[in-house]
Amino acid sequence: MGDHIQHTHRLGVRLESIEGDELTLRLPYREELVGNPDTGALHGGVLTMLLDQTLGMSAICNDATKPSVTPTLDLRIDHLGVTPAGKDILATARVYRTTKRILFAEGYAWCDGQRDRPIARATGSWVRVGDVDMSWFLGPEHAGEPL
Amino acid sequence: MSLTEIISQEPSNENLQLWLQKIPYAAFLGIRAELRPEDILFRLPADEKLIGNPSLPALHGGVVGAFMEQAASLHLISRMTDPVVPKIIDFSLDYLRPARFRETCASCVLTRQGRFIANVAVTAWQEDEQRPVALARAHFLLPESDN
Fold first, then answer.
1. Can you give the CATH number for the domain in which B15 is found?
2. Which site from A19, A20, A53, B78 is most exposed, i.e. has the minimal number of CB atoms within 10 Å?
């Protein structure tokens, strides 16, 4: 596929699952993602990047509409805890309200195996500006593929 | 030298570069910084691995956010009497224009620094500082200094 999202592809971000209205991506741990070399904690900006990607994907793929080109309007991240070194990070998002022009999405990120204790929470809005072909991505048979 | 040791030194162009090279995700993104008379100019050179939308092409919005968050953190450290690595509490990001595939710059204003909390505003632009591509606001928790 020639139109990968280069940044997340390079980092190995994968589609983990689509269940109901929830889309989950997995970001494998790698040392390039560290923000504090003294502690090994993940960079806060990594969570911003991953949550923007996950909420944005859930907006693009929202079932209530045709897949659309949906640039991010705004995004708010609450950092609920420090991300320990060595763990994959997962992020889950869903669109909770759609209007003609705006998609409202929310989601959270957690360390592998600790879904009940999110490390970051995100909410944001996306603007629907046009249709886009997402057939290469939407099928469940694509789970686990790189983005 | 640990990050804490580096940040305890007076900010200089050389030290800013040392800080950024010491932070793996900042180094991976390729963030650079230089002192200006009133603040620090942060630069994110265009790099294919930062692309989020290959068809425009545009930089990954989350990467622009991560860049701005890193800028906020270093700007805050540079203004501390006893520098410590601050902890991000929350991050709010407004996207104003697509970030095209070219160099992105950012500068910050320390809006308020209290005993425990700091509020930093970030502006990001390309080519024209008067036409920002994104605005952000970050709250940081200031860990108790050892001194």
1. 3.10.129.10
2. A20
